[in-house]
Amino acid sequence: MKRKMLFWPLLLLLLIPNHIAFADEKNSPEQLAEQVIEPSYLYILKQWKEVGIDNASPYERAISPTDFLSVPESDLVPLNESKGYEDQVFSWKDQKSITVEVDVEEEGLYELGFDYFPLGEGIVPIEGSIEVNGSYPYYESRRILFPKDWKSASTKFEKDRFGDEIIPKQVPIEEWHYVKAEDSSYLHSRPLKFHLKAGKNTIKLSNLRGEMLLGNVYVDSVGTIPSYEKYLEQNKGELVDDAMVTIEAEHPAKKNSSFIRPVNKQDASVVPYKRDSRLLNVIGGESWEQSGQSATWNIEVEESGYYNISLKVLQEKQTSFPVYRTVMINGEVPFEEVEHYGFQQEKNWKNETLSDDNGEAYRFYLEKGSNTLTLKVDASPVNRTLFEIDQVMQGIEELSLSIKQLTGNSQDRSRGWRITEYLPDIEDRLLNWADALDKESEYLLQLSEGQEAVEVVSLNIASERLRSLAESPDEIPSRLTQLSEGSSSVAQILGNAILDLKKQPLFMDRIYIHGDEKLPKAELGFFAKTKESVLKFFHSFKSNTLATEDVEDDVVDIWVNRPRQYVELMQNMADQQFTPETGIKVRFSIMPSEQKLILANAANSQPDLALGISTWLPYELAIRGAAYDLRQFDDFGETVGRFSPGAFLPMIIDDSVYALPETQDFFVQFYRKDILNALDVPVPDTWDDVVEVLPELQRFGLNYYTPIAGAVAFKPFQATAPFIYQNQGDLYVENGMGTSIDSDETIKGIQFMTDLNTIYSTPLQVPNFYNHFRYSTLPIGVSNFQTYVQLTAAAPEISGWWDIAPHPGVMQEDGTVSRWATGSGQAGMIFNGSKNKEQAWELLKWWTSTEIQTDFATTLQIMYGPSYMWNTSNLEAFAQLPWPEEHKEVILEQWEQLMEVPKTPYTYMIEREISNVWNRVVFDGENTRSAVDDAVVTIDREMRRKMEEFGYMKDGKLIKPYHIPTIEQVESWVEENDE
């Protein structure tokens, strides 16, 4: 709602910058989202209810693909290629759209359903959007998912060399699916409703991502679920008394998410269990906690009738809040009472017989023969709370932006503001939000049966803080860290509560389908548990199967600086593929810290090969004679072409290369499409473009993020080097004996880097760009792979509303844009002391090959979820990863201008002094040229000391030059191999 313009006293006008004081009212912060984003589904449902729009009378209509409007014949797949569908189907891909027309007699709410056949083996979800009569009815209709079903390639768990069970390969189930359009976050338990007017309506389904065959589109009246009482009346029969069917939960027949996986619980109460090996004996945990994830088990019963269902579960959610599952029999929820079945936190395993609030077991009717039981993760009971929290957070964001407009974003505590004169309703807003949070806190307390879970406490703390701020609203400009900024602000507390409420983890060991039979105990008795604890204690002294230890001389010893699940997968892939192909035995071990390599080398107990290490470490070991030159291998030239040439620079000394890139980072622009569209701000292509859009962003309290703000006191090369390289500057003189940061080009880059903070007012310090990006305060900025993973896996609320673009650069005289940026990832190196250098090189080539890197990356995500993204440095493999194609194109384009900082013995001093120059210019107001000149003196002094230490100088005189590696040098090796 537009606010009336207030009369602002002359004093305030003098204090507020003109471009803020006279901001255009139509672009007020509270209206930004409304210009591009529809209201939420819950909000629209309330509106429909208020105006009397209700569910339509029973209705069903199926629209065949041949009846889609204006569909080219070439997009229709013939009957003999329709995967068994009894009609022609539509090939839905590449952002294509289909439109159907439906004529209904009654205005009301309807549901939409689709027959579809997923294509492709990737795990990137198939996404679409739905428009009704030319517009999106609500925000959720912009993203509709069409999930695939998955199954294990084998029903038997194979074992690795240590006797531990291996998660089998997951494969998509190729069959036709039927789904009703649902909210993509699955926070609504029922399908989405769509308002159709009486008469003709058009429904448009647009492809956003993925590929599938589309069959019939269905328009149905809203479905209903009977009560338990009616369910019993509909199905005549008796309880089958003597039945007992036991199902091991770790073997579902199918699941709608590939990373719902069996896991090991090393607990003697679990079946099966072995003290000396890790068996995959339960399902769930963090792999089965996202709303909408479902797993299905086959049930065979010998006679028709009613059965009880018991689940052996462990609910140990750390916040102590209950979790929920929707229970379905043969694909449908049998009765309302099991639509949101809650599991309270328990310290031990429990046989949970599905029962009502009085403990009376529910009876489920099963037909003789084959039936299915599906359990679907369900966060819908807390959806109303999530909605209210989101409303409060949006309100806080709008209020914070309004205050920043008024104060020019000043938080000076010595400066007084009379905020209540310009925002007279600020106290009411704060108190209304506190009341809303109190109401939701009481609701959550009911769900948790009176237990004060972390989520309840978080809402109470946020409410108290809002009431405290309301007591002194004029002090809020200097207390924004309590309202909307910082790790302990109300916005951050509520953001964490949202994440906690959405998580619904549950471990499940067994499923019992039974009558009145007594169930096996869920937990071992006291004496049995005590005995097992003692035996496990003594067993713990045995060697960890993945610990670093001595190996036989004919085994390639590989230390990996990564978590267990990565190393296990690497070992299994090598055992199944590399060793059978080459006859070379390998053993992977977890290296807790890469610093162990330095100690191991000093003790002459180093491995043959190290993986997952920082790109600076091979150089430090090589210059001390501990690393092996990979150019000594005849086929090195065939291998180097797999990678970005600029990634090799920190691993080269003279003409020798001491490591291969294994993973690679990227720095690109992240931007919020919704906010930039609302402000009519283009995505910058150059730094000059960034400077041009900054005033419009800052007019609304928004800003542009650079990696400089992400660093604290010390500014690393990742933040500073791009400004130097893009301006054609350099860090070293030609013979390597000194620094060239005092050259005109380098100083130009450093000057602009500091101007961004001193003149253009970009943020000085941002502890977490991801959070600011999600909450819209920093809607655009330069960041890396870590941010990409966070936004992809942990920000579903803005999915589809952000994108990436190449790093901003500097326009050159020839019209090209110089975008040079760093991209340090991890590397792999062979030790000089290895007795198996040739075998280690074969392994390193195999590991970094396109086929293996693609297989490893895909398997990681299929097994462990979207957050396990693998940023391989192999360019061909990266192009085949299961990432959105448009994002891979941007990253690969940026990698064409990847330039890591070459290493010298004194590089660390250059990095430190550039950081010091930034601090002196920005905080002390020192002249840039003067600060750089002082830095050159310090660097050159350290240079002479280090070059004498490594034999390049003696008594201040040059003995031999130090060759600074270049991209052209690496490219020449590739060209030599091609010739």
What's the SSE blueprint?
Blueprint: H1 10-15, H2 18-21, H3 29-36, H4 41-50, E1 60-63, E2 76-77, E3 89-92, E4 97-104, E5 108-118, E6 126-132, E7 144-146, E8 150-152, E9 170-172, E10 177-180, E11 194-196, E12 199-209, E13 212-221, H5 228-234, E14 244-248, E15 254-255, E16 262-263, E17 282-284, E18 294-301, E19 305-314, E20 323-329, E21 341-343, E22 350-353, E23 364-366, E24 369-377, H6 383-407, H7 419-422, H8 426-447, H9 454-471, H10 480-483, H11 490-502, E25 507-514, H12 526-539, E26 555-560, H13 564-582, E27 585-590, H14 595-602, E28 609-614, H15 617-622, H16 636-640, E29 652-653, E30 656-657, E31 660-663, E32 668-672, H17 673-679, H18 687-698, E33 704-705, H19 707-710, H20 717-726, H21 744-758, H22 769-774, E34 780-783, H23 785-794, E35 802-805, E36 810-811, E37 817-818, E38 826-830, H24 837-847, H25 850-864, H26 875-879, H27 885-895, H28 907-924, H29 928-949, E39 953-954, E40 957-958, H30 967-978
Parallel strand pairs: 26-27, 26-28, 33-34
Antiparallel strand pairs: 1-13, 2-3, 3-13, 4-12, 5-10, 5-11, 5-13, 6-7, 6-12, 8-9, 14-25, 15-18, 16-17, 17-25, 18-24, 19-22, 19-23, 19-25, 20-21, 20-24, 28-38, 29-30, 31-38, 32-34, 32-35, 36-37, 39-40
Helix pairs in contact: 3-17, 6-8, 6-11, 8-9, 9-11, 20-21, 21-28, 28-29
Protein name: ABC-type glycerol-3-phosphate transport system substrate-binding protein
Keywords: Signal
Organism: Sutcliffiella tianshenii
